[in-house]
């Protein structure tokens, strides 16, 4: 195998064309076999194989820097930078991350778990290089889905004015997680049609360049003529208007074309945008047919492409419940930020086309757009992962809560999510929402509670309502459970109380089989019910276990409430105070002392 002969990253530069093409085949096979066992982002990485190989052949890492946007395109890069023998640990506890991590390798230039940040970061690095008289390059690899995010244009707008050695590679596969939508997606489709013009330009320059004595001069004149002709026939691209030299589009799976265009880009004395067309899932039939499913996937059978996980989950149940409400209430509409399938809105989008909005990777816009819908009398649900909701914090405050508008935020993947690690853990939303007036927060542990919360959000609550639920299945509670804002469970006569909310009730109930104490379990965690406070403040010992950040979290809010009411007993908080690394959810809960065994030890005073 050629892959096994690459002992250090620079060895790839010694390969001829035939060997490089063979290397790409081997990398695809290795990638498919790895992700089939570990799970991860498959389709996006399959589409970036040739691009990554071409970048490694043409740049000198780590002096030159490559920044991936989003970082889930980096698996091939990791294989080529000394981590091939660690790929079986991908996304596993103690193993390598599924995203770029500078603390993992000097070849990883910047953390990138969210979209649209690469150009800003790359421009900053390029400017630092310029100030230090460092003549090396900075490359930002941008997925076309990230082009729908506003931050990318802030970066392009600033970088285009510079003379930095900055190359932005637009990896255009017509997909983000769901199919790309909006005006920018249509714009890129038009730009793709110019490939015939580019082929003519390259061919003409080659012919002219071979004419003795005058060839180079003719090429220079032809370039000037070409720019004028291009302006008349095609007009300029938005990227050129922002100050970039635009090259492309070209076939992103053609190594010779990639090599030629990267060399052209390196010769420019200003920022360049190289536009390549790729196929998401390239080389693996199931991923090519359904790239949205294979974008982020668990372990699967390589032969069939089938996964083992088919159990019910909160995302799907949310989608079903929302359809039920929308059938009887025409005010209800749904918004997603490029994640229609993964947030459970696929069926809703088909059944209520006029009331479904995919805004692209633009979470801030989604909240303000929802605020406008609410102002107009609609009841918008914005379905978004907890980690991505962070990007719209100002809009929640300024555009939604300040005006006390009914914007309902369905916060998917709340709490620990596992293998995606630090960039994706949904542990900050309670803390940052707690600080905002006119916000109600629910954290259901069961599907029935979630439906109960949705109904209250639509017909009872005022202002912004957040309904946060975990990844995966519901907690199994007593079949006779009737959804409520809070519950008193366990030994009601005990003077020791455990307080919790959401999925953590599962670990608490398991621990209480040994402890036999009083439990106050919250479904509605903001505002805190005063009757629930009364159930807690008279205890001698109170232990709060929270699958969220300690600072500004629910536990601190409970502490404030009960101490104001005269509580004088022992009070203990177990919550999160760090970024949580990739592992399974179970492993993370154990490490954070939120598992049942740790709860037992804490309450017994053994920890």
How many helices? The count is 25
- What is the terminal separation in angstroms? 52 Å
Q: Compute the number of strand runs.
A: 17
Oligomer: single chain
Overall pLDDT score: 91
The appropriate CATH architecture of the largest domain is 3-Layer(aba) Sandwich
The computed structural class is: alpha/beta
Strand content: 15-25%
Under CATH at level 1, the class of the largest domain stands as: Alpha Beta
Radius of gyration: 27 Å
The largest pleated sheet is described as: 7 strands, mixed
Helix content: 40-55%
Query: Could you state the CATH homologous superfamily of the largest domain?
Result: Thiamin diphosphate (ThDP)-binding fold, Pyr/PP domains
CATH topology of the largest domain: Rossmann fold
Return the domain count.
4
- Trace the largest sheet across and list its strands: 7-6-8-9-11-10-15
Q: How does the overall form come out from the CA principal axes?
A: globular
Task: Give the low-pLDDT segments.
Answer: 229-234
């Amino acid at each position: 195998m050629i892959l096994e002969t690459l002992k250090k990253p620079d060895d790839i530069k010694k390969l001829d064309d035939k060997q490089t093409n063979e290397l790409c085949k081997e990398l695809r096979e290795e990638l498919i076999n790895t992700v089939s066992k570990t799970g991860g982002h498959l389709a996006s990485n399959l589409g970036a194989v040739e691009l990554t190989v071409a970048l490694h052949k043409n740049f000198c890492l780590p002096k030159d820097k490559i920044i991936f946007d989003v970082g889930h395109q980096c698996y091939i890069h990791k294989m080529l930078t000394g981590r091939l023998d660690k790929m079986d640990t991908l996304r596993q506890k103690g193993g390598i991350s599924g995203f770029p991590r500078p603390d993992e390798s000097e070849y990883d230039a910047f953390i990138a778990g969210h979209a649209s940040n690469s150009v800003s970061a790359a421009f900053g690095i390029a400017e630092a290089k310029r100030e230090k008289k460092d003549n090396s390059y900075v490359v930002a690899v941008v997925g076309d889905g990230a082009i729908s995010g506003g931050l990318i244009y802030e970066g392009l707008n600033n970088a285009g004015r510079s003379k930095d050695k900055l190359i932005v590679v637009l990896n255009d596969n017509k997909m983000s997680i769901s199919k790309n939508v909006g005006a920018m997606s249509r714009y890129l489709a038009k730009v793709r049609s110019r490939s015939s013009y580019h082929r003519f330009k390259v061919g003409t320059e080659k012919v002219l360049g071979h004419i003795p004595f005058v060839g180079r001069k003719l090429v220079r004149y032809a370039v000037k003529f070409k720019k004028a002709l291009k302006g008349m026939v095609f007009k300029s691209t938005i990227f050129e208007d922002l100050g970039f030299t635009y090259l492309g589009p070209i076939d992103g799976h053609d190594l010779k074309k990639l090599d030629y265009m990267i060399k052209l880009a390196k010769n420019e004395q200003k920022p360049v945008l190289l536009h390549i067309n790729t196929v998401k899932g390239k080389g693996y039939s199931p991923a090519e047919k359904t790239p949205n499913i294979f974008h982020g996937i668990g372990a699967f059978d390589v032969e069939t492409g089938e996964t083992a996980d088919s159990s019910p989950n909160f995302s799907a149940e949310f989608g079903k419940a929302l359809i039920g409400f929308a059938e009887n209430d025409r005010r209800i509409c749904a918004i997603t930020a490029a994640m229609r399938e993964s947030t459970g809105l696929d069926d809703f989008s088909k059944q209520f086309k006029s009331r479904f909005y995919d805004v692209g990777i633009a979470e801030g816009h989604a909240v303000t757009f929802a605020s406008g819908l609410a102002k107009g009398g609609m009841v918008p649900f914005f379905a978004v992962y907890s980690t991505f909701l962070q990007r719209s914090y100002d809009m929640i405050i300024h555009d939604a809560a300040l005006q006390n508008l009914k914007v309902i935020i369905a916060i998917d993947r709340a709490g620990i999510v596992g293998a995606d690690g630090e960039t994706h853990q949904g542990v900050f939303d309670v803390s940052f929402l707690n600080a905002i007036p006119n916000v109600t927060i629910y954290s259901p542990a069961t599907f029935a509670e979630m439906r109960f919360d949705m109904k209250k959000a639509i017909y009872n609550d005022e202002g912004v309502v957040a309904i946060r639920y975990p990844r995966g299945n519901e907690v199994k509670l007593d079949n006779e459970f009737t959804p409520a804002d809070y519950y008193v469970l366990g030994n009601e006569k005990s003077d020791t109380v455990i307080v919790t909310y959401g999925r953590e009730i599962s670990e608490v109930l398991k621990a209480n089989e040994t402890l036999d104490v009083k439990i106050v379990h919250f479904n509605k965690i903001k505002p805190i019910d005063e009757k629930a406070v009364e159930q807690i403040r008279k205890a001698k010992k109170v232990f709060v276990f929270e699958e969220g950040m300690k600072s500004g979290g629910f536990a601190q809010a409970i502490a404030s409430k009960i101490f104001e009411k005269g509580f004088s007993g022992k009070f203990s908080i177990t919550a999160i105070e760090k970024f949580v690394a990739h592992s399974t959810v179970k492993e993370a809960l154990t490490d954070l002392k939120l598992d049942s065994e740790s709860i037992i030890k804490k309450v017994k005073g053994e920890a």
